[in-house]
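Q: Got a minute? One more chain.
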Amino acid sequence: MGLRQGRSQEWCRHPPTDAGNGFQQNQDGSWRVITEQGEIHTEHVVNAGGLWAREVGRMVGLELPVLAMEHMYLLTEDMPEVVAFNESSGLEVPHCVDFDGELYLRQERKGMLMGTYEKACKPWSPKRRRGVSDRAIARRYRPDCPS
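A: Always. Here it is, folded:
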């Protein structure tokens, strides 16, 4: 199984809302990750906390120099052209970056994602969230995940 496929399957089992409530390193160097869904025993832990990477680092005593920023992007629905390219080449659509226009474009699932590099970025704050739950977002944008 490829890393991306494994990551996607693991995302469904432990989506971002299945927060790690704690980490404990065992004497043999492996880890015990405590989540709302139970414990996970693993050799390695990857901080893929995204907006919460700083908080995840703090859970193991690390102060990471990261700051979440608000970001706008456009996500398309599935595109037949993307599917055809994937099937004919066995590859994803190549990423594209326009440094002058401060835009990037990449494949996201069976569609495309376009994002910008904003000049007047604002730090993101969970206090400004407007009642949309992470689990609702996960179900909307990852329909392959069970409810």
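A: The chain has two domains: 3-67+132-141, 73-116.
Q: Perfect, thanks.
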